[in-house]
Predict the structure of Glycosyl transferase.
Amino acid sequence: MVDFHQNGNIATLHNLRTRSHAEMTYELETFAQTRKMSLILPCLYSELETEAMPNILAELAKVTYLHRIIIGLDRADEAQFRHAKAFFSELGQNHIVIWNDSPRMKTLEARLVDMGLAPSEQGKGKNVWSSLGYLIGCQDSAVMAIHDCDILTYTNEMLARLIYPVANPTFPYQVAKGYYARIGGAQLNGRVTRLLVSPLLIALKRVVGDRDYLDYLRSFRYPLSGEFAMRTNILPDLRIPSDWGLEIGVLSEAWRNLAPKAVCQVEIADAYDHKHQTLSPEDAQTGLNRMSTDICKAIFRKLAADGTVFTNNVFRTLKATYYRSALDLLEAYYSDAKMNGLTIDRHSEEASIELFANNIMRAGQFFLENPHETPFIPTWNRVHAADPSFMQDMQKAAAADAEEFA
């Protein structure tokens, strides 16, 4: 999307098609001589069997500026871990596959449980948190990036554009958030961003009033993207949500810890497609049904922490305001899609809006009934304070797994 618009809250770094990937790669190689860069890949074993992952691996094998790749592997047994190690052996960079379900890792998790510091649930948040702990323990990287492992349209130019703003020592950015157009199969995708987050932020501004935090979130063109890059000095104090609110949670942490001038968003692809979650209207614990509730809770928690008072009446008003805002945006999305030769199923889109509206109330009720909930995994600074040897023991466990199951 070639433009140069700036929203005034955070910097937007566009792809104006005036610079080659080769030139950017050369500059990243220069930065890497004094600022080591690492990549974290939170991965389910099942993703190794998709059409996306072999292409991602082939593209990453070409990258010359990465110092280390950390693959956090979830939902794998011993045979699958062995297969994963062989699968990722194609990578020429220094890399490690961390078997999160290994007996050694489960023993370490039990130590966290005994200290009251364990993640409250399994999932991507825990995977990312564990991988960050391993990276912090290495103490040798100045810059890190994270991206998903189900990107069907992946090229390593995505990584170059994602990591460049925080790798460039002359730039002020501590956090870079990737954005792109969600298009696949001649359809306009990205339902949760389009039909939940955008209209919800509009509705919140109308119901609870102007909040700098709401303006900040609204500045991101794709707030739910799984692509981040950060300077590693901010990682030990980063609070990672343990549920589907991970992406909103990380943006909220950047808002809490950094000045807006230290955060940017960067266009990393013309079009982007990955695995699509089902709506799962019949099951509140899976798919977009669960995701939408967790995202709402993450936003409500942050606003409450900044002093916003929520009541049942506020949530009822918010639901009604959201519903009207979402339908208005749906009309704009339909026109946009039609003009660009894309399709939108208006019936299923409205069904999604109705589900999300109900989940705003569900998330609000949960928020009111659980005022003492601790939704974040403890920071690594806190873990280190409670058990100074934990990160070192985690590195030893990962190395022992890699050697034993070679």
